[in-house]
Amino acid sequence: MSISNQGRTDRDSLSGKVVLVTGGSRGMGAAIARRFASAGSRVAIGYRNESAAADAVLGDIAALGAQGIGVTGDISNPDDARAMVAQAIARFGHLDILVNCAGIAEYRPFEAVDSELFRVTFDTNVLGTIAVIQAALPHLTAPGGRIINFSSALATRPIPTTSIYAASKAAVAALSHALAKEFGPRGITVNAIAPGVIETDMTTQILAERGAGIAAMTPLGRIGQTDDIAGVALFLASPEAKWLTGRTIIADGGVS
Q1: What's the CATH number where 163 sits?
Q2: Count of domains in the chain?
Q3: Which domain range does residue 28 map to?
Q4: Residue 165 falls in the annotated catalytic set
Q5: For residue 255, is it within any domain?
Q6: Structural contact between residues 127 and 76, judged by C-beta atoms closer than 8 angstroms
Q7: Residue 107 to residue 118: CA distance in whole angstroms
Q8: How far is it, in rounded angstroms, from Cα 105 to Cα 123?
Q9: Is 43 helix (H, G, I), strand (E, B) or coil?
Q10: Of the listed 146, 165, 168, 253, which one is catalytic?
């Protein structure tokens, strides 16, 4: 099959699907939302307070000829998570694909870690993922539903000052594996993406300080882009990935 024909097949397979992308107003989440829209999917983008950024992504989705809606809330609050899903269901009626991209990352030396940092990080990255999945599950296509969570390459190769963040993302990988076993009989796949350093507004300082070194240690010789990760998400949601579940895909340009 030619590349052009394969592209049409991918679009046809995801056309009309309903996708909820948390953290969809910026960075990797925004790129994922745009890629699904370009494939003809109907996209709900979840965000906490970046209304201008969300409006910009929704404008891009509309320009692609796709349907989009913004759903607001803080996923670390289970009530907000349920409200976000309810807004998506009120518009589209059901969900086919859930992408849990929302998360936070704060790095500190271990001696500076306190209970507040632990709670904020785990409440967002772990409890938030759990809360959105619990809210979405009754509305998720079964069989055929897809859940795509976000871990991190730091979960398996942490560096100094990342202990709490890395631990939270390791928990997401373990959660994804366990839920794949639990939801498999329903025909729902659960996978995770573990990105390395990706160029976003959240990594501006890191890249300014050591971007050249990161690129030099990466076998592919460059810094990852948001669309690199969006492509992985699109694959995991596609029929081509129907036999893939319980896996964490490390997408770091070969560093691992």
Answers
A1: 3.40.50.720
A2: 1
A3: 3-250
A4: yes
A5: no
A6: yes
A7: 11
A8: 12
A9: strand
A10: 165
